[in-house]
Design goal:
alpha+beta; globular; 7 strands; 2 helices; about 110 residues
Length: about 110
């Protein structure tokens, strides 16, 4: 099944305003994957008015977050903190692509 065919849940978070005044609006789409898939996927977008969008993809094992509510809560915790930290060094040229594994079991690419 394609992600576009899965139920989608829109998540919004408070904006990130850096000390230099640059601001990012952070939102996400959580894809409600079918029971045959053993993970949730969350696609984050950090939008900057002049620089455009920076994307991050989070994968949460369903063994770690067995319900949709758990997945929503987890996405807004440590992974969101990691995104906020990464945006501190973003520039108009973007940022390096990184893989972020966690000891909790979730993984993020962005």
């Amino acid at each position: 099944m394609r992600y576009a065919q899965m139920p989608q849940h829109q998540l919004t978070y408070s904006p990130l305003r850096r000390s230099d005044g640059e601001t990012f609006l952070i939102s996400a789409t959580l894809y409600e994957t079918p029971p045959t898939m053993n993970y949730w996927r969350v696609h984050f977008v950090a939008a900057h008015a002049q620089w455009g969008d920076i994307h991050f993809n989070l994968f949460i094992p369903k063994s770690l977050a067995p319900t949709l509510a758990h997945a929503k809560a987890l996405a807004g915790a440590d992974p969101l903190s990691q995104i906020r930290a990464e945006l501190q060094t973003a520039t108009s040229a973007g940022r390096d692509l990184n893989w972020f594994p966690s000891i909790d079991g979730w993984h993020m690419v962005g």
